[in-house]
Amino acid sequence: MGYAAFETGTATVAPALAIKILIAGGFGVGKTTMVGTISEIRPLHTEELLSDRGIGVDDTSGVESKVTTTVALDFGRITIREGLWLYLFGTPGQDRFWFMWDELALGALGAVVLADTRRLQDCFPAVDYFEQREIPFVVGVNCFDGARRYEPGKVRRALGLGEHIPVVLCDVRDRRSVRDVLTTLVTYAVKGA
Amino acid sequence: MTGEDPGPLIRLYGLTGGRARPQGESFDLVAIVVTAGDPAEPADLIPEHRAVLALCRRPTPVADVAAHLRLPLNITRVILGDLRRDGLVRIERPRPMAQAIDERIYREVLDGLRSL
Ligand SMILES: Nc1nc2c(ncn2[C@@H]2O[C@H](COP(=O)(O)OP(=O)(O)OP(=O)(O)O)[C@@H](O)[C@H]2O)c(=O)[nH]1
Ligand SMILES: [Mg+2]
User: Fold this and answer.
1) DSSP per residue, A11-51
2) Tens digit of pLDDT for each residue in B6-50?
3) Does residue A28 have its Cβ closer than 6 Å to ligand 1?
4) Cβ of A140 below 6 Å from ligand 1
5) CA-to-CA distance for B77 and B63, rounded, in angstroms?
């Protein structure tokens, strides 16, 4: 979340606000696809270079390999108007990058946790993460071809989610569907409903 | 950038001196960056710094600066931290979200999403 009214030189620039939304969920659940479906910018995928600090792996391979440790991060943008943007960040899947989640989550409006009904348990860590930090989230059940359709209510019960947390069926390849998930999240995060 | 090609990595590390963390107070990936005051920039600025100062005459989120520079987010943040240290850019400090999204902005966001 970013908000600021700045003065540059003598001219006052209009307030600018960037709203951060996280897209989380298990490996291969459709996070990158979701960001790509709705984003207006291309450089979606960045390889983030990591320092030797905070990783705690690759210790055997020495300093040089640490310098080139990267984590893939996806991000996309939706411009609402000049000075008002939504940024979507796909969270890294591997567990060893949890420390990046903390950074991503700080100041976020909320999160979409994507779930695949064929392996629902994969989204437990993300659900736990956002519940513990009281970050508003909605669950998007990505309807892969061939997967059985579940009632959102069943998914909610299987995940042990409270009644208030929205669970929506979606197709992350479909723009309207992604848009509806984001609308649900924004409303839930701002209005609590 | 690919994992195999060491060229870009070495160049990126030239930009940051190998640092993965920005100088000074931490700032968000979507914090708004603005070029500070008069464009009396030092003559010896590297191209990336010059590009940031030109771009951020308009308030620009950190992530967008990265997209424009085609650089990873954390490299971009190191660059921005250096520019802030030198007084060339200002980076907004985090604010509680509840203050930031008022009814009008909420409506704008919803309308914007619905028109996609
Ligand atoms: N049929 C179908 N395929 C999908 C759908 N969503 C994603 N896929 C495919 O599933 C694969 C994984 O999708 P990604 O978007 O890369 O998933 P991800 O969550 O980013 O994966 P990781 O970053 O590796 O964890 C890709 O080949 C997608 O094309 C969907 O709704 N239906
Ligand atoms: Mg991905």
Assistant:
1) EEPPPEEEEEEEEEESTTSSHHHHHHHH-S-S--EEEEE--
2) 555 566 667 777 777 788 888 999 999 999 976 677 778 889 999
3) yes
4) no
5) 9
b/e map of A58-93 (b: 16 or more CB within 10 Å)?
eeeeeeeebbbbebebbbbbbebeebbbbbbbbbbb
Strand partners, A142: A170
DSSP state at residue A60: G
Question: What ipTM was predicted for this assembly?
Answer: 0.82
Fold of the A17-47+69-191 domain: Rossmann fold (3.40.50)
Q: Which of residues 32-71 of A touch B (CB under 8 A)?
A: 38, 41, 43, 46-51, 53, 67-68, 70
Q: Please give, one letter per residue, the 3-state secondary structure of A102-140.
A: HHHHCCCCEEEEEECHHHHHHHHHHHHHHHHCCCCEEEE
Interface A-B, measured as beta-carbon pairs within 8 A, has a size of: 151
Q: Which atom of ligand 1 is nearest to the CA of A26?
A: 25
A160/A163 Cα distance (integer angstroms)? 9
B92–A6 CB contact, under 8 Å? yes
Domains delineated in chain B: 8-115 (1.10.10)
Distance CA B43, CA B50 (A): 10
Q: Computed from CA positions of residues A77, A79, A83, A85, in that sequence, does the dihedral angle turn out positive or negative? A: negative
Domain ranges of chain A: 17-47+69-191
